[in-house]
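Hey,

The postdoc asked me to send both predictions to you directly instead of through the lab channel. I've kept everything plain text so nothing gets mangled by the mail client. Protein one:
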Amino acid sequence: MKKYIIALILLVCPLIVLAQNPVPYVIYTKSGKQTNFTKLIKDASKKDVVLFGEFHDNSIVHWLQLKLTQTLADKQAVMLGAEMFEADNQSGLDKYLAAEVDQRGMDSLVRLWNNYKTDYKPLVDLAKEKKLVFIATNVPRRYASKVFKEGVESLELLTEQEKTWMAPLPFPYDKNLPGYLKMMKMFEDHANENLPKAQAIKDATMAYFIQKNHQDNVLFIHFNGSYHSDNYEGINWYLNEYKPDLKLLTISTVSQEDLSKLDPEHLNKADYIIVTDKEITKTF
């Protein structure tokens, strides 16, 4: 009986602490078990690729991305990549990392997101400081837009140089993946079959450049919107198509009012789910 009481106390105590002391985030496993940053780091260190799914405007998650990268880079070889940089801007990013241009020079060479300085510059500067490779993995936005407006077939008319900035054509595509079906339903009033394909060319391209640049015994940490890797779809699905032997770990970001447990809808969304308080400051 005494053992059961002790077990109950161990189970309830964390929930009491959460209720009495406001916290900005809690980390859960895919099964809904509360875990911590140390365990996440330990698990990530054993993988080939980490897909860190974010909310683009979440200040806490951007801070955690930086801390995760710093911690792993201090203990093993890592390389970075991100959705936020498009493949045709790789040379500009490389010039900044090699200190051939300053931030003003990078601003003129690379199409940077509006929240770059607050949310992604710390990661790029960390890569510069530690001399880490940083891969621009995303397809140039104009080509995803072209797929939406004109269809995948339109990409075949691009120059050979332009085709180097995306996944090899034709790229694999499964219209019945739940994420793509959900997208069609969400935008059913003005959606056509090209909508999920425009998303797919992004997912495929990011996966292609991750596996192309991955090196043995080097952990590739990739930053992307959660919707690009949630439910083991998107980038994750394409990595399994291109290089199925890679050991992957996925992280998702969700937001809840109650952090004491993981809402059922988020179970199995990723290997680790970061739940942030709904009142967390947005960066834009």
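Protein two:
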Amino acid sequence: MNHSSQAVTLTQPAEPSVFPVPLEDPAHFIRRGTPQFMQVTLALFSAGLATFALLYCIQPILPVLSQQFAVSPAASSISLSIATGFMALGLLFTGPLSDRVGRKSVMVSSLLLAALFTLLSAMMHSWHGILLMRALTGLALSGVAAVGMTYLSEEIHPSVVAFSMGLYISGNSIGGMSGRLISGVITDFSSWRMAVAVIGCGALASALMFWKILPPSRHFHPASLRPRSLLINFRLHLRDSGLPLLFIEGFLLMGAFVTLFNYIGYRLLAAPFSLNQATVGLLSVVYLTGSWSSPKAGAMTNKYGRAPVLLFSVVLMLTGMLVTLFNNIWPILAGMMLFAAGFFAAHTVASGWIGALARRARGQASSLYLFSYYLGSSVAGTAGGMFWHDYGWAGITLFISLLLILALLTGLRLSTRQL
């Protein structure tokens, strides 16, 4: 299936900006500037924030967990990888489930369960108990990750879907920053258990607010959950000329991103930097660059096309990665900012591109992309530990650079196919 990589007007049905929308009167969709638009924006922003705070709050305290439970950095990273891995697994089911039972009910239930599992993880006194709760947290969060983009595509007017997607992903970036910042600072002044409990309570409050203010779906049409239908749609997605390449792109981008933030804490806590845990947590402010770059990338795709913006974003990530090789905190911070800005921009473009190609089973198409995305987090995030153990930060830089070079080659192949 060939589509032009250049931007077209958002009213053209051949290539919507995020996901194809039902062929209904556009007047029935939520427009920018209306009270409903504000409700959806706030609800999805808070859901994205809570999701990523729950998922990544563990990342800056990996060195603390290594010490307390006497595990290696690679083993400690499993507490994050197991959550993202089970999230990836859950995405294969929660997306199709939302195609059957509805978007809002799946998202609300998932966010509530994830908050409760996080609170339980703060009470665990064995490493295996923590891993179990983290696995259940990731599994629960798959219901939010799989459905949020699909809800926006169905309810928001096509002319502002790209903008709404950018805001949603900016909530993800701020959530990732908040989770890391809060857990790092509270751990330094209290304990990691208190840090995780605070984040769990915050997510519980976000889930209740989300339940209260998110408008019910008006364009949702139940789909069959028959295994045969799911298998047919799965095969169609994989046989598409572009979707599999975007799945690979998501794997590579997220794998690179999580690997950097998994091990940068170990580097900065050690000599010659010798920063404390609170300061390492505060460095999560680099995520704010993602809250700017996400909506910016969504707007730029309308002007320049998806492929050029995607390739530029990956180059920005690679540049930022190389800058972190300096043994000075300020260049490292600048490199992290470039890396984060490039990542969130690239993810915005890639996730939007999925919708331009998926013609049926929107929830399943979204789930397959996010499955690859979080599988990259789980696999590369743990594999990077071997490079850190054997070669230090130079090894991490080599590993991430290889992932990003593959991401560039994949992006180039997408652009030459003119999808």
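Summary for protein two, as requested: The longest helix spans residues 362-416.

Thanks,
C.
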